[in-house]
Amino acid sequence: MNKELISFLIPAYNEADNIKELRQRLEKISQKLINFDFEFFLINDGSNDQTIDLIRQWADQDKRVKYINLSRNFGKEIALIAGIDHVNGSAVLIMDADLQDPPELVEKMIKYWQEGYDDIYATRLSRDKETYMKKLTSKLFYKVLESSTTIPIQKNTGDFRLFDKKCIVAIRKFRENQRYNKGIFDWIGYRKKEITFHRQARFSGKSKYNYFQLIDLAINGLTSFTTTPLRWATIFGAIVSIFTFIYIVVIIFHKLFIGNTVSGYPSLMSVILFLGGIQLLSLGIIGEYVGKIFYETKNRPLYLIEDSNLNQID
Ligand code: UDP
Ligand code: MG
Question: Which atom of ligand 1 is nearest to the CA of 73?
């Protein structure tokens, strides 16, 4: 009997301390799910620790291991695409290397896949050991994103999910440089199924994302997904214009019928500063989009591969 192939797609950046444990857990899963064949597809995203050596070692001992070694650190979003471009499975499971996504959920995901769902994604119920600030900012981000688009947004969803092959084929068509994968995952549609889990703390090491990178990810997410911020700038500009017009009429009447009174330095300053602020903000918003166009028109490759074991003949 021909078994179906399931690919685990795992981006890894400086995860040397997690590879061994990851391997053990994956092996446990594959032993349990005997009705499937497995492929462990690892993307080394320019790590500067032992990650790639450990992956190579693993690949030497286990034929199911495929790896791509990127030429430098491209960031998780791009590393994932490198994997999506090359995986072979009829189902692809995207998972972090740090074991924050419990591999034990995999069984449940596969079950739903067999029931006919195409995109089974895990939503976080809790965020162990994440700071209050991180929780709050993430909540705010989803609120803004949700209010600015018509596509249903999956909140608190990481990249831990199972895709049917048809989703993978669809995602391969998105060649944008400035990408926000989660937005693309929402965009493609297909039969989606949510499962929930409690996110664990990292097995070892610490998160690669600091606050600046999270802000960057948030702005990137918003601007590559929707032009609504531009619309806000327009609407706000329109409202302010209406008020200023009314105020101008009031001033003229004042001058004509009551006479000029030179006063109002505070109100003058507030108006100038307020409008100056709004103008800079609007310019910034426009700038974000112009920047996106700049990067997109260069049409650069999304990633470069230094080496891989994809074409080796066993
Ligand atoms: N990662 C990557 N490239 C990067 C940053 C992270 O491939 O530039 C990988 C990392 O090895 C891990 C996953 O993306 O497998 C999630 O990263 P991390 O745990 O730092 O993010 P968090 O869990 O804090 O969201
Ligand atoms: Mg993590």
Answer: 8
